Amino acid sequence: MPAPYGLAPAPGLRWNPEVDFAARNIRALIDLWKAHRPTRRGLPSFRGFDGLELRPWADNLIVLDTEPTLFGGHSYRYRMVGPAASTVEGGNFTGLYLQDALSSAQAAPRVRLYDRALQFRAPVEVRGRVALGGTSPATPGTAPGSAPGTARWDTVALPLSYVGERADHLMVLTYVEALD
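Predicted structure:
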């Protein structure tokens, strides 16, 4: 089970600021994804995950449908967006296509991440610092109306298959923590 993200320790426990809750939660979800793989090269079935099993990550979880385009790329549609992930994405875009919900500057880094997960048929993690501020975020991990500053952005994209071997869904876990 993943560790809670950003919660205070229970009474009597000493706080350890070196514990990286985002990394632990991402690692735990990757381990669950691996446990659901039917074979070493196969992809977990989208239907194989139970909602209760995913509950520890639900607030920060995004599920996307992937559809091939005419020119060999992919189009992404938000199937489910958790409450904390909605803040990061700039709204609850459930049912909308990524390119319709976000500006091209916002969508581009996400599309690169999602395309890599589909290409490699494996989890793809991204960590880094992003700029916050303003009402139109240009980078992933920024929220509209956030105060200027920087934040740490941790995310993982996990390819899934509804049926068969073709990756047709993505599960994305995203954590953003303001640094200043």
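Summary: Residues 104-120 form the longest helix (17 residues).
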